[in-house]
Write a structure and sequence with these properties.
By secondary structure, the chain is of the alpha/beta class. The chain has nine helices and eight strands. The structure holds pyridoxal-5'-phosphate.
Amino acid sequence: MVSENLGKVRGRISAACERVERDPLEVKIVAVTKTHPPEVVREAIAAGINIIGENRVQEAEVKYKEIEAEIEWHLVGHLQRNKVRKALDIFSMIQSLDSKRLADEIEKESAKLDKMTPCLIEVNTSGEETKFGVAPDDLAGLVAEVLKLEHIKLVGLMTVGPLTQDKDRIRRSFVLLRELRNRVESVFGCYMPHLSMGMSDDFEIAVQEGATMLRLGRVLFGPRQSFAGA
Ligand SMILES: *Cc1c(COP(=O)(O)O)cnc(C)c1O
C-alpha cells in the first residue's frame, strides 16, 4: 500500500513541478512515520524511501534500533535541550532548530562527538500561536548566532504551513519562507539550499513555491496510529 501511495505522490510531485518548470529530482520526500510501527518504516524503505522523518526523539529511537538500512533520519519536531545528545545519535539532520539556547546545546554535543550537524531553522511563517519556530523578524538574529558555531552546518529553513483550507494563505506562508531564505543568503553570503515545506494537504503548493523537501505522513501511510514506542 505504501508503495502504491508513493507512486501516486511522485506523480503529483512531477505534475506540480511541470507547471512551474522545476526538475522533480530537486524535490526530496521525507517520509514522516510518527505514530507508525517499525514495520511501516521497513515498508517505506522497501518502496524506495531513503529519508525518514520523526517528531519525537524517544519514539524515533525505538524504530532506529530496529532498522538496519542505511537511510537518513531527520528530526522534524520540537527538540528539548536535554534530548540533544540522544537526538544526535539518531538523526543526521535537525529540521527544527528554533532558538539560540538549542543551537548552543547542539554545538556543544556535536563538538564532543567531533561531528558537524546539518540543521534547518524552523520559522513560524503563519503567525499561528500554537506553532513552533522563530518569528520572521527574529530569523536574522538567530542566523547570525548559528553561523558562528563551528559544528552546526546551516543548510536551509523549515516551516509548517497554516492549518486552513485557504490556499492563498498557505501559499503566502511558503513564499515568505523562500523570501526569507533568499534574504538570509544575500545578507550573510551563505548558501542555504533547502526549503523544507509542504505536508500531506499542501505539498503541491509547496513544490510550486520552491520546496526541496516535502515532509509527508498521512498521504503515504494513512491516518495516524498509536505507536509511541513504549
Ligand atoms: C506530522 C508532521 C508532518 C507530516 O504531516 P502529514 O500531514 O501527516 O503529512 C510534517 N511535518 C511535521 C513537523 C510533522 O509533525
